[in-house]
Specification:
Blueprint: H1 25-38, H2 43-56, E1 60-66, E2 70-77, E3 80-87, H3 95-109, H4 115-126, H5 134-152, H6 156-176, H7 180-203, H8 214-218, H9 224-235, H10 239-267, H11 287-302, H12 310-330, H13 333-353, H14 360-371, H15 373-382, H16 389-417
Antiparallel strand pairs: 1-2, 2-3
Helix pairs in contact: 1-2, 1-4, 3-4, 5-6, 5-11, 6-7, 7-10, 9-10, 9-16, 10-15, 11-12, 12-13, 12-14, 13-14, 13-16, 15-16
Transmembrane segments: 32-50, 134-152, 158-175, 182-201, 213-234, 246-277, 283-303, 360-384, 396-417
Family: Belongs to the ThrE exporter (TC 2.A.79) family.
GO cellular component, one term: membrane
């Protein structure tokens, strides 16, 4: 789901004429903040970028306060001061737009463009017209779902079933792309249709009763990145923004769960007719590595990754998966989540500063789905369908600890990566 909206409706409130300030700088900063928020970038990162840009233009950023719903920017230059407050909306932009946005940020941090040019560039990036490409959505989501399935599912039959469910979701996502009203109910609608097909397959004996089959097909809506970013912001003492993201993530999980339960009731399958599986026998040692390649190809089609960023995305994905596997082998799942997250952050930061120049945010967003934090939360909630409440509570505690591990991995990885300098 990509947020729409025109960024040109900003109306900054100036507390002085700002005669000595660079023309249109305040409007440029507010529009850039809104664009980064629309991409889902953490508020600490947004605030740091805006302060860097102010320094590049010789202006002091007296106050930069960014929240998911509004941003406040106060800048000064000598006796001139200006203040802007504007609303904004968090979301998820296609990664090619995020990549171009970061190119603009690099230029602005070196004062290589005028604020007016920056405003025009932002409008060009955000308001780009995209044609409906149902084949791209269907094929992309089928590959995306199949790739994740190779990390979770044990048999070829279940893998094909997983890819078919992904293709159905891709069709729905493509149809609803320019329909805001439908987007409001999309998580429930998709969860209902996918779960109904799955439970019907279980009832007819076409597929084994494992709820993990639902995870790849629904994972696009499972807010793993939102929840992990929220925990990261809380760890960095950004209480309001972190709490709002956590509430948003939990609500989406509950909507997905509601759709799954309605699908179960419509099919008329008894709760004991299926099982919840957390671990599955892999197809072979090669399956996860091929799965990452298939998953990346699906992300390329679904999230519109630029060709120049594909190498960096692949490197971060394999590094994250390697850290996850090593951590699982050494100390178990929580350490695996922590180590995978830390490796993801360090490698993503390194690549952004290297000649590859893949933006950090572009490379780590696909890697969040490899960590699968949202999937764990969804499966734990789904155990309620079987009325196994004690197991649900135990698993939910582990999910909370998993998010803590991932957020700490982000923090520790950022601390370690900060002094890295690429010549």
């Amino acid at each position: 789901m990509y947020p729409g909206g025109n960024l040109g409706n900003i109306n900054p409130t100036n507390i002085s004429d700002g005669g000595d300030l660079p023309p249109n700088l305040l409007e440029f900063l507010t529009e850039l903040a809104r664009a980064m928020t629309a991409a889902g970038i953490a508020v600490m990162t947004i605030e740091a970028i805006l302060k860097n840009i102010c320094r590049a233009y010789g202006v002091k950023a007296q106050e930069v306060i960014d929240f998911p719903t509004f941003v406040l920017i106060k800048i000064s230059d000598g006796n001139s001061k200006a203040l802007a407050v504007t609303g904004q909306k968090p979301g998820l932009l296609p990664l090619d737009q995020v990549s171009r946005l970061y190119e603009l940020i690099y230029q602005a941090e070196n004062a290589e463009i005028t604020p007016e040019q920056g405003i025009n560039r932002i409008n060009e990036i955000i308001n780009v017209k995209r044609q409906h490409k149902y084949i791209r959505h269907i094929l992309g989501y089928a590959l995306y779902s199949t790739g994740l399935g190779m990390l979770l599912l044990p048999t070829t039959n279940e893998l094909l079933f997983c890819g078919a469910l992904g293709a159905i979701v891709g069709l729905i996502v493509g149809y609803s792309e320019d329909k805001p009203r439908l987007n409001l109910i999309l998580p429930v609608l998709v969860a209902f249709l996918v779960s109904m097909i799955f439970f019907f397959g279980v009832k007819q004996g076409m597929v084994k009763g494992s709820l993990t089959i639902l995870v790849p097909a629904l994972s696009y809506f499972i807010p793993g990145a939102v929840l992990a970013t929220g925990m990261y912001e809380l760890a960095a003492n950004n209480v309001i923004s972190g709490s709002s993201r956590l509430v948003q993530g939990v609500v989406i999980l509950l909507l997905l769960l509601f759709g799954v339960l309605i699908g179960l009731q419509v099919v008329g399958l008894s709760a004991g007719a299926y099982m919840v599986a957390y671990l599955a026998t892999p197809l072979g040692w090669w399956a996860p590595y091929i799965g990452i390649l298939v998953f990346t190809l699906g992300m390329y089609l679904l999230m519109s990754i630029r060709n120049r960023d594909m190498l960096g995305v692949l490197m971060v994905l394999f590094a994250t998966f390697g850290g996850l596997q090593i951590g699982n082998y050494l100390l178990g799942g929580l350490f695996g989540a922590f180590l995978g997250s830390a490796v993801m952050t360090m490698v993503g930061t390194y690549l952004e500063r290297s000649k590859i120049k893949t933006p950090y945010y572009v490379s780590i967003i696909p890697a969040f789905w490899i960590l699968v934090p949202g999937s764990l939360g969804f499966i734990s909630l789904a155990t309620l369908a079987g009325q196994n409440y004690s197991a649900s509570i135990t698993n939910l505690i582990m999910v909370v600890l998993t998010f803590v591990a991932i957020s700490m991995g982000l923090v520790i990885g950022a601390v370690i990566a900060d002094p890295l300098k690429i010549e």
